Amino acid sequence: RRQAMEPPQQLVQVATLQGHDEPRVWHVAWSPSGHTLASCAADRAIRLWAEDGDRAWACVAILTDGHQRTVRRVSWAPCGSLLASCSFDGTAMIWRCEDGVFDCLASLEGHDNEVKAVAWSPSGSFVATCGRDKSVWVWEAEDEAYEVAAVLHSHGADVKDIVWHPTDDVLASASYDDSLKIITQDGDDWRCAATLLGHASTVWGLAFSADGAHIVSCSDDRS
């Protein structure tokens, strides 16, 4: 029987990853295996990092032939071989890794301007994007093709963030309109099932608890 390990008394920095050409790195995301870290930045690049023995980290790939402006967010598919990215150029892209080489599999176009977030569903069947155009898009992934499943205009302002429920195909979004929306699938359609109010200013981010029973949000109202 394995005994529970005592939690560490403090976190210790083990590495500093440098390489992006611009000082603003917008987002990082661990692959499902935990072996690769993806980062994206204002230099329009996506970098993939991996441990190279003895706690030394190295950049193993640089993706620069996709987006034309700042890359705002990256998200791994549950399978670990697909990576989604989104950019201020108004697009999201799907990257496929084969034998350690990443290639652009698809470009998801439709937003009027900056795409602020992208996220894979836990099933891997859907990709969601949101943007400055006040919309949330749901894309269905099937046989390496990505079709628009829904475009929702539930928010009254810039949509800042989106997250999926950890086990179900349920989506939550946060916006400059001070609200959160819960988006669910209804047959072949997607709809806003609930609006969560309470913040007095922009809702910047949100996250589901590990069991999906709760959702936490943070706002410009300092709460």
In short, what is this structure?
By secondary structure, this protein is an all-beta fold. It has one domain: YVTN repeat-like/Quinoprotein amine dehydrogenase (Methylamine Dehydrogenase, Chain H, 7 Propeller).
Keyword list:
single chain; 223 residues; mainly beta; Methylamine Dehydrogenase, Chain H; four-stranded antiparallel sheet; 0% helix
Instruction: Please report the distance between the alpha carbons of the first and last residues.
Output: 42 Å
Rg calc: 18 Å
- Strand portion, in percent? over 45%
CATH homology-level superfamily: YVTN repeat-like/Quinoprotein amine dehydrogenase
Based on the coordinates given, report the CATH architecture: 7 Propeller
Whole-number total of structural domains:
1
Give the beta-strand count.
18
Reading the helices and strands in chain order gives: EEEEEEEEEEEEEEEEEE
Q: Quick one: biggest sheet?
A: 4 strands, antiparallel
Q: How many individual helices? A: 0
Helix content: under 10%
CATH topology assignment? Methylamine Dehydrogenase, Chain H
Coarse morphology: globular
Backbone structural class: mainly beta
Catalogue the unreliable spans.
none
Order of strands, main sheet, comes to 1-2-3-4
The mean pLDDT is 93
CATH class: Mainly Beta
